[in-house]
Amino acid sequence: MHRTVRKGLFWKFLRHKSGSLGLALSLVFLLMALFGPGLAPYDPSAADYSHTLSGISTQHWLGTDNFGRDLLSRTLVGARYSLGIGILATLIGAGVGGVWGLWSGYAGGFWDSLSMRLVDVLLAFPGLLPAIGLIAITGPGLLPVIMASAFFSVPIFARLVRGSTLQMKERAYIEAAHALGAGSRRVMRVHLLPSVLAPVLVYVTLRIGTVMLIASSLSFLGLGVQPPTPEWGAMLSDAQLYLATDPLLAIAPGLAITLTVLGLNLLGDGLRDTLDPKLK
Amino acid sequence: MLAYILRRLLEVIPTLLGVAVVVFLFIHALPGDPARLAAGPDATVQEVQLLRERFGLDKPLVVQFVYFLNNLARGNLGNSYRDGKPALLSVMNHFSLTFWLSLIAILLAALVGILVGIAAAVYRNSWLDLGATTLAVGGISVPSFFLGMILIYLFAVNLRIFPVSGGQGWRGLVLPALTLAAGPLGTIARFARSSLLEVLGEDFTRTARAKGLSSPVVVFKHALRNALIPVVTMTGLQFGFLLGGAVVVESVFNYPGLGWLLIQSISARDYPVIEGLLLVFALEFVLVNLLVDLLYGVLDPRISYA
What we know:
The structure holds two protein chains of two kinds.
Chain A: H1 3-15, H2 17-39, H3 71-107, H4 109-123, H5 129-138, H6 142-168, H7 172-179, H8 184-220, H9 232-239, H10 248-275
Chain B: H1 2-29, H2 34-39, H3 45-55, H4 61-73, H5 87-122, H6 127-141, H7 144-158, H8 171-200, H9 203-210, H10 215-245, H11 247-252, H12 258-268, H13 271-299
Helix pairs in contact in B: 1-13, 5-6, 5-8, 5-10, 5-13, 6-8, 7-8, 8-10, 9-10, 10-13, 12-13
């Protein structure tokens, strides 16, 4: 893309109020994920049984949990787990689904219909079900929750990229590449991939938020990241027992997830409005 | 129309067959021995072996799949390993609870979501629009388990208006339904806004305004009817998601619906019930999609089903 066009789009994005707010929120939580462990005043997993459920104090700004662990430190470090899982799982889902969709759309014919029927079958299980199903097989943990959340996005990206590939492969420049003797792999990698990437990138931003909600839901159900790891969904699961007496235990990680996902959704909407003038 | 419905129903069969294969393979990939679990911790090796033969688990996988399809075709999913009752009966007993919860949630989400969407579109770029849009994105962004916990804290623990757990008459339905409605409400409001904005810019709405019709008449009588068509599709799809996606909300409120049953059955490795649940989830999702397509024609007479 030409530099002036890029600069113009950048200013256009900054004029998008909610998009800019989303960018700011996302940056705050991204910085928290990068530097949270350094900023945390206490070790997030260190129990202190003499200060359990202490409430807000000058030593513990957000109080402590039932093991006497500092809630602020756990929330700060939790950003790395929750946002990290969201980003990693979305990228894996987009990568696998993208290759699938690119191949399916390019191959066409029988293999395309067969692979799209498989996508239909995978999409026939709504909501969290595919992710829960996968974890039922592998058992809970950090890696299974990343794989399950990624798996959840694969058919969606496969369908999206296949659609774009079908449109693009009829263009004259692809025909020209074939005429010049380029092989299928080269056409897919060098010519098709860059043109289908733009819509995928916007969707990736919108998707990270959804994937974060899925992953934290799994941890909340006890199927994802296990205690004492300070993942926000797992922290909310622990907080359930103390809801009546210490609601802050739920509010801190709950607000953290909500604001991160809100930021990513607003950012994704802003990017879509800026990059695709047809959609308003 | 009838031919179209029949064709669409026939098209559903390969998808459902694929679903059956995925469900069967999934069940057999689950770790743990269901015969051992069903026999209990004190059972001897012989007793476990007997149970394995009774469940047909000693047969090769292909033979088990043929049995599975054969039984499926007759609506027989076998008996629950836990209580020995037919698995389908168990699924159906919990189905109505999830169905009513999802139906109330989707009606609430559609009603409020459409109104919020109309307000945002009519007063575009105003503070009302910004508030409505923020509310909509907020609804999509808040995790249902967090919203559920906040509602429990406010209305059950502090104000004591509603019970903490669901499934106790209509009052037990209010908080879970509100929690479940938040996500779809946001999606429907955003969709209604953009759809109405598009229609408000079209020639026929401009003509209606040029005739001197008042703004409410233009919006409600002319624009809304056309703008609602894609919103109906979105609402239907969301309903399909709710039926299978109530797992988390049912867990927060300890509401004994299908999602709750799924978590229980997975931990007990109750194969027949898990099979039944997954098949019912997939079937209802596919049928809801079909119904939405048919509803399209009712709302928009231009769509023909030739």
